[in-house]
Amino acid sequence: MSLRIEQHISLQPFNSLALPAYAEYFCSVTDKQQLLAALDYAREHQLEVTPLGGGSNLVLAGDLSGLVIYLNIKGFSYSVADDSVEVTFAAGESWHQGVLTTLQRGWYGLENLSLIPGNMGAAPIQNIGAYGVELADLFVSLRAVEIATGKTCEFDKAACQFAYRDSLFKNAARDRYIILDISLRLSTNPVVNISYPALQAAVAEAGLEADLSPEAVSQLVCQIRQTKLPDPAVTPNAGSFFKNPVIADSAVAELHNQYPEMPTYPQPQQLSKIPAAWLIDQCGFKGVRRGSLGVHKHQALVLVNYQTDGGGTGEQLLALAEELRDAVWQRFAIRLEIEPRVYGQAELADGSL
Questions:
Q1: Is 65 a residue of the active site?
Q2: Which domain covers residue 256, as residue numbers?
Q3: pTM, two decimal places
Q4: Is 339 in the active site?
Q5: Tens digits of residue pLDDT in 319-334
Q6: What is the mean pLDDT of the chain?
Q7: Is position 240 annotated as part of the catalytic site?
Q8: Which of 113, 221, 257, 296 is the most exposed place for a label (fewest CB within 10 A)?
Q9: Catalytic residue among 240, 292, 325, 341
Q10: Does the structure show a pLDDT above 50 at 38?
Q11: Number of alpha carbons in the 13 Å side-chain half-sphere of residue 38
């Protein structure tokens, strides 16, 4: 199929917040050859390139100049060895559908990451994680195309420099590569991980301690997420809007003197993680609305677009986010960092606006 380049295309259907924005140039690619052709076109016409996947972890603060490439590359392959299987997913595959596919085939490890929105290609950029498991725990390698040259490169786990909600592709390699596919190593043995407290509680409440399967863990994770997070198809949102801050234990001890009920989770190197949702909730923002935009009534970590009067803009959403960040800073002296990538407006290195 030949590549089709279009002009002035609405990106509202391509972002889970349903924010209005337009691409100066736009194309959808379904294989590597089309991607390379799109990059050739961008170089020939000296256009900036913005790759777009599931659109679940971005904020469109304005129109995008240059060429927006929608990655619609599908497919997966696998190889089995002893008690493990290495699965390779194309970048355009749905993350959650991939989780379901592996469970159906008896390949385990992804169940704690069920119902995370977005596509496979974005998962390593963010090093997605939930309920005690991170992508890095299962990651083998990825292939990516260098935007400037069209060269295909391979990155193993070490090269990706994974950290909490972070990777090489958010730092030194930011905007340099477009991910083609990712490879994960899963187990054929049905061993489960319920180390995360909320998941342990859900298992106990369901009475599944004696007979707990990876499939049951996936179902419980889906139930937990559905009770805490709104469905983007019903109420547009980008999931968790802020990272959970990680601060020194000494600072946590001082905060506990004033807020003994503050939940914390120990981390390596004398650090602790504090739920950003708790901090925002303490500042009284749960359920707050600013026109069409607001903080979800059940989960303070999620900013939503109610679209009741035609939908809010990215700039308005970021203004609300900054209002929350300022309130948390004033009360707790903790600077929240925005988790989604902001496009169409300058963004500071710490994720501030």
A1: no
A2: 230-343
A3: 0.90
A4: yes
A5: 999 999 999 999 999 9
A6: 93
A7: yes
A8: 257
A9: 240
A10: yes
A11: 30
